[in-house]
Glycerol kinase
Amino acid sequence: MSEKVILALDQGTTSSRAILFDRRGENRGLAQKDFRQLFPQPGWVEHDPREIWESQIGVARELVAKAAAEGLEVAGLGITNQRETTLVWERASGAPIYNAIVWQDRRTAGDCDALRAAGHVDTIRQKTGLVVDAYFAATKLKWILDHVPDARARAERGELCFGTVDTWLVWNLTGGARFITDASNASRTMLFNIHTLDWDEDLLALFEIPRAMLAEVRESSEVYGTTAANIFPSPVPIAGIAGDQHAALFGQLCLSPGMVKNTYGTGCFLMMNTGAQPVLSENKLLTTIAWTLGGEVSYALEGSVFIGGAAIQWLRDGLGIIDRAEEVNALAASVADSGGVVFVPALTGLAAPHWDAYARGTILGITRGTTAGHIARATLEGIALQVCDIVKAMEADAGARCAELRVDGGASASDLLMQIQCDLLGFKTKRPKTLETTALGAAYLAGLALGLWSGVAEIQTQWSVERDFVPQMLREQADTISRTWQKAVARSRDWVGE
Ligand SMILES: Nc1ncnc2c1ncn2[C@@H]1O[C@H](COP(=O)(O)OP(=O)(O)O)[C@@H](O)[C@H]1O
Ligand SMILES: O=P(O)(O)OC[C@H](O)CO
């Protein structure tokens, strides 16, 4: 009998990846394809929905072929995806009516100001767990219905489908036979009630969204259907769906309340499992559905940072002081400290806990002695300090101190960034052997539904640490850096006009 593997599809902001995982949670093959980022106007970010699909199916097919060549049986697939990114397509033809509006897109910041001014903040927070911000899908979807000719009338007639990226992928994988999402993705739309687990009629009315264009909301781990005949040489069951940060929390096996992970990708996303009860934040964090599994809902608190590893990309592409992302580490290590330089990487505004769409990137404390090394070090510190602000807010909401942080994502490969993070937090930072935790989480969710694992107890033993970082900095020094950072954040805020 051939060995079974699960195919995880990880549709991220900058690339589509596919990874094969075996029953031990080991990576048995990876393929990745970048796709275009479209910036039609300042503050706008779009993707071509066809490129999302074609890049994702391309890498998936590559791995299905690899599995066949190696005698592995693809028992099923799980999907994890960039969240909030908003797509609308024709039900009859599957053709998109507009580009995907990406989570980073700020075009609806003014609409969010209007919602706040009209007093909708508390209702939205109570129902969805979210703060009012252009980050989420609702205002993006409304924008498409308001700006694409005839779109709202067509949506009302049931001719259009709205989906987050998971929905778009499942639709295409099944040849339009399944129009579904999972509760974790739905909880990022600002249209979904995280208590009733249904689309919320009041919010649909507020954003003028016809219910006919919404997908059916399913659990994060169940067999939804199989791939259509033309997708792979033989049909593959689709059995898991979760937003990427939720899948990473699962893949890090943060399955008990109080466990925390942070993913250092384009942005940084810190999530704490809060168990069966939603915790409404008093500190501008998000309450979100972690996943739904076996008829039970798990909730999480989340702090989102828009610019994490993207700040390093800016050093490469904007400033040109490095050629490759990993070179930031040697450059930052060439100096003992940032020499008083502070970089607030608010390049697309500030997310949690500030939620200031009008903040902008700010570099302060430059002297004649400042070198590229100091800027590089300040960049790593700026990423870590944003995470510290979120940890503080999360500790206040949870009423308990964090004991350790599990890390993952591309930039967590940086030993220096992880040491800086640990020094500033003052507690253990643990990097697991598998950094592909997002994809692994999707594979676990699918494999559980398919019976590849008997239950979470079986996978719980699969997490193992690659490196434990322990604090080395004196607390007074960390406190001084933190105080200077707060001053710099204040100066970065409310910088550009509405
Ligand atoms: N060795 C490294 N040191 C520091 N940063 C890195 C390193 N490798 C990758 N990065 C950063 O990690 C980010 C990519 O992480 P990834 O998890 O692939 O992102 P995403 O899923 O958001 O596309 C990039 O922003 C890059 O700058
Ligand atoms: O694609 P990533 O890894 O940058 O994650 C994007 C997040 O899901 C946005 O909320």
